[in-house]
Amino acid sequence: VQLQASGGGLVQAGGSLRLSCAISGSIFSIHNMGWYRQAPGKQRELVASKTSSSGTNYADSVKGRFTISRDNARSTVYLQMNSLKPEDTAVYYCNADIKWRAGIAAYNYWGQGTLVTVSS
């Protein structure tokens, strides 16, 4: 199983970016999917998550600005980021709980990270 994140880059404050994370490999089912971020010198933190039943959870700092969505047919999770601020600068990681066959517990997988830099 591989998680391939893309869409990061350099953007001015107030701008937008859309991150994508495509999941490939031997997949039976995908459960929780989410995005985390880690800024320099800080711990990795949850940005947004979405369950298989479409429940969502956002960090307070991004509520109203970021939107997480998932395309189950494409095994892809997205993060639409609007009104970006310099404090959103971080490496963004996708994360997912995946079963690769029936009858086993889901395993937690991480993508490789994509850098988002917001200039003031």
Task: From the structure above, extract its key features.
seven-stranded mixed sheet; elongated; 57% strand; 0% helix; single chain; mainly beta; 11 strands; 120 residues; four-stranded antiparallel sheet
Quick recap:
The protein is mainly β.
Biggest sheet record: 7 strands, mixed
Average predicted local confidence, pLDDT: 95
- Report the structural category: mainly beta
Total number of β-strand segments? 11
Order of helices and strands: EEEEEEEEEEE
How many individual helices?
0
> End-to-end distance, in Å?
37 Å
Helical proportion? under 10%
Detail the poorly predicted runs. none
Strand content: over 45%
Q: What is the C-alpha radius of gyration, as a whole number of Å?
A: 14 Å
Shape by Cα distribution:
elongated
Protein described:
The chain has 120 residues and is an all-beta fold. Helices cover 0% and strands 57% of the residues. It has no helices and eleven strands. The chain has strands spanning 2-6, 9-12, 17-24, 29-38, 45-50, 56-58, 66-71, 76-81, 90-99, 107-110, 114-119. Strands 2, 4, 5, 6, 9, 10 and 11 form a seven-stranded mixed β-sheet that branches. A four-stranded antiparallel β-sheet has the order 1-3-8-7, with no helix packed on it. β9 and β10 (107-110) form a beta hairpin. The radius of gyration is 14 Å and the shape is elongated. The mean pLDDT is 95.
